[in-house]
Amino acid sequence: MLLAFDIGNTNIHLGLWDGGGWRLSWRARTVTGKTADEYAVLVRNFLAVAQVELGAISAACMSCVVPALTPTFQELARRDLQLEPLFVSSHIELGIDIAIDSPEQAGADRLCNAVALAQLHGAPAVSVDFGTSTNFDVLSGGRAYIGGVIAPGIRLAHDALVSRAAQLHKVDLLPPPEPIGTNTVHAMQSGIFWGYVGMIDALLSRILTQLNAPSAHVVATGGLAKLFMQHIPRINTIAPELTLDGLRLLYGLNRG
Questions:
Q1: Is 7 exposed, middle or buried (0-12, 13-18, 19+ CB in 10 A)?
Q2: Catalytic residue among 6, 97, 109, 159
Q3: Residue range 167-222, pLDDT digits in tens
Q4: How far apart are CA 123 and CA 87, in angstroms?
Q5: Predicted TM-score (pTM) of this structure
Q6: Within a 10 A sphere around the Cβ of 167, how many other Cβ atoms?
Q7: Which of left, alpha, beta for 114 (phi over 0: left; psi -120 to 50: alpha)?
């Protein structure tokens, strides 16, 4: 069984691949100061829910965009899983071309998404990953990762607005009844939600125009993907495990 870790700035997404599908996937909050011992408790709890013994894990693959946590999870894998984990970077075999200015600067999660796009959804294609930031990753018709867009995530934009305006408070990230808000809550929801929908739609339009591929497949992933899909017709598919799929495909490519 493969244990996959997508270690992001806000959440850690764990997945257990049993050879036929994801037996279980979980999200936990990222805490940079936690030790390997503390994260080992999280892993044991995760495996307990999946009803899998620690010794049944035969492989581990990790995507980490929090450099301070890389040695922590490496220690966890070596000590508790007794495995040498595969960490995703531009230096491993990816199965696709990386056609950007500085391949070593590409986030590991973005590389995973590009690989999963190529293997599972074809090319050309675009992924939209709703995380701390909203990442657009673009695969050309020739199956090359050619870059993308990094935009502030909707929660980040919401928190920044609330923290800088004394009379504004947190609101649910949902569409209001009407675009014109008749109270502060609905006005904020309209600005944040519909403004975000407009940003995503406009960026997708420009990306597909540059690709000269108006019918390129657009895949959304991340916690808020389902909420936005119904309001952004350009999104074709929801793939909650897109990054995890990239991890297991990359493990197979590099370690068989």
A1: buried
A2: 109
A3: 888 999 899 999 999 999 999 999 999 999 999 999 999 999 999 999 999 999 98
A4: 25
A5: 0.92
A6: 5
A7: alpha
